[in-house]
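Thought: the user wants the 3D structure for the chain below. I'll pass the sequence to the structure tool as-is, report back what it returns, then summarize two notable features.
Action: structure_tool
Action Input:
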Amino acid sequence: MRIPLQVTFRNIDHSAVIESTINEKAAKLDRFYDRIMSCRVVVEEIQHRHHQGNLYSVRIDLTVPGKELAVSRQEHADAYVAIRDAFDAAVRLLEEHGRQLRGAVKTHAEPPTGRIIRIFPESDYGFIKTRDDREIYFHRNSVLDDVDFKLLKFGTEVTFIEEQGAEGPQAARVALAKR
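Observation:
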């Protein structure tokens, strides 16, 4: 960290042991992302409950180049558990931020779409014409449960997953396209 760790106590007396625990956990954050510029931790007693004990809240604000990451309130009756949970969440945030910077975040591409150009209901199969003018075979078993095979007709727009079948490309998981 480039700027020293800042620890703030609210509605609670300063505790050297809690601050030491926070310092240890904050030092370990550099292992997960080495470009942390600053880290601010707020430990707060948010409720004083006479019968059940106190409730502690921990908030962590991290500054990394170009972005601020925040772990909002991690609450627990035990201050050390709240600190542990907050730093675990901070590790997950830093790892996710690092993945985003590397471009390693998974994206779910939309399935390809096409139109039914031939359908043979009595034989339980048909063909889909893709956007790049290829013909893809599909069978009744490939049509998802929420679509009745009998309702499919010429020109119906569908989405599908393309697989390589024994005799060429075929469609799996055929569904009506969302409009």
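Final Answer: Structure generated. Helices lie at 16-29, 79-102. The two ends are 49 Å apart (CA to CA).
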